[in-house]
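Just wondering, does anyone understand these tokens?
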Amino acid sequence: MKIGILQTGHTPADMAEIAPDYALLFRAMLGEDSFDYQTWNVVDGDFPDTIDAADGYIITGSRHGAYEDHPWISPLEDLIRQIYAAKKPMFGACFGHQIIAQALGGKVEKFKDGWSVGLQTYDFGDQTLDLNAWHQDQVVQLPPEARVVASSPFCKYAALAWGDHVFTTQAHPEFQSDFIQGLIEYRGKGVVPDALLNSATDHLTKRNDNAQIASKVTRLMRGEGIS
């Protein structure tokens, strides 16, 4: 099975030793041998010729806002709608979560209460999961046909699903502690409030539940639904 990774940003150059690019984080999360992978750098205007170029799709995080005026945003939204209409499996994290919601009729904006960084606890109904976050933007208006599958006091629409073939999370289940530490050092200082960076640093040694989201995404990609 072939998974297409739609890369919507690049990792900071200073963090290349941790992960040269976002696509590799998702490959590590799901397992190099679990699927065949191909990456399209949509942030650079590189798109698949057809949605049948892959059996399922993952949309990565990005430093860009879904609502910003970039030449690749509108074509990406069109592609998302095609993937959705074809009922191909699709997963998005952070920016991926936001752009899927926006393309399917929701609204994304810079959140009035600011940043969420580091390990956060999310209520998935039957369980709570601790996942890393790094965002200021949020989905603030639920898209039609979407259902909320996770939330937190800070993030109302923390994970969404459409039918049994689209699943998105505001959190970054592909980020391990080393990546968060790199973001604190190279993207956070002078941008994110010190108190939030300090809290994120304090939680670097705590366990995360990335593996549970990886399991959900694996089942999604294999057509086994969202559970």
